[in-house]
From TrEMBL:
Chain coiled-coil ranges: none
Residue ranges constituting the HTH tetR-type domain according to the UniProt record: 28-88
Keyword rRNA-binding: no
Keyword line: DNA-binding, Transcription, Transcription regulation
GO MF terms held by the record: DNA-binding transcription factor activity; transcription cis-regulatory region binding
DNA-binding region: 51-70
Pfam families in the cross-refs: TetR_C_24, TetR_N
Keyword Transcription regulation: yes
Protein name: TetR/AcrR family transcriptional regulator
InterPro entries reported in the protein's UniProt record: Homeodomain-like_sf (IPR009057), HTH-type_TetR-like_transc_reg (IPR050109), HTH_TetR (IPR001647), KstR2_TetR_C (IPR041490), Tet_transcr_reg_TetR-rel_C_sf (IPR036271)
């Protein structure tokens, strides 16, 4: 992380493509609202603190409505993780068709996700929620995470080929991207002191140019 992953000629000027996680249909939209509210509360209060009653009250629905959408609390956390990784995947594909280089694809995807992470109501589920899941479900969620990371690894390899990414281990760098996106949620207090654009650019540029910054 000292020098980042972007090549010396690269710049931090991503063109993000807004990602919308909502599905078509009133029932699917309602479920997405439910998962968004649950994600927000689990991130804020942890698995134990995000009770069914709080989630239902947040959406102004009955407790019975919760069980209409989700069978159990473990199923809820699994569904929130699934939604989060689907959003990450959408962000990867949304920018790939319009970017000139692989680095532009990576930085565009990361930018989309950072805007989400600095917004309480849109954030992805924190990886700390994994600890509450049964081992079999936890393994499934880790597999989803690794699948997203492998897509970043593929983009990093493409970037090394087109000269927009420094020679790095793509698998390690991909996991670094995943960690950077996940940990952004914990810096919301810092981001709120800046404009959202400045916060995203400042935080994201650490991925590009590292902690020592661009030297040329």
């Amino acid at each position: 992380m000292l020098h980042g992953i972007a090549s010396s000629a690269a710049i931090w000027a991503p063109t993000p493509s807004p990602v919308h996680g909502d599905a078509d249909g009133a029932a699917r939209v309602m479920q997405d609202d439910f998962l968004r509210a649950a994600t927000c509360l689990i991130n804020e209060r942890s698995y134990r603190g995000a009770s069914v009653e709080r989630i239902a009250a947040h959406l102004n629905v009955t407790k019975g409505s919760f069980y209409h959408h989700i069978d159990s609390k473990d199923d809820l956390v699994e569904a929130c993780f699934r939604r989060s990784f689907e959003i990450m995947t959408q962000s990867q594909f949304a920018v790939s068709g319009t970017a000139d280089t692989a680095w532009a694809s990576i930085s565009g995807s990361v930018t989309d996700l950072l805007y989400r992470q600095f917004d309480d109501e849109a954030a992805l589920l924190r990886s700390s929620a994994l600890q509450a899941l049964p081992p079999a479900v936890r393994a499934k969620v880790v597999a989803w995470s690794n699948r997203v990371a492998r897509r970043y690894a593929g983009l990093l390899a493409d970037g090394m080929a087109d000269g927009s990414v420094r020679p790095v281990d793509p698998l390690i760098a991909a996991q670094t991207i995943m960690a950077l996106v996940n940990s952004a949620y914990d810096l919301r207090w810092w981001a709120q002191r800046l404009t959202i654009d400045a916060a995203v650019a400042s935080y994201g540029s650490n991925l590009a140019f590292g902690l020592v910054g661009k030297t040329s």
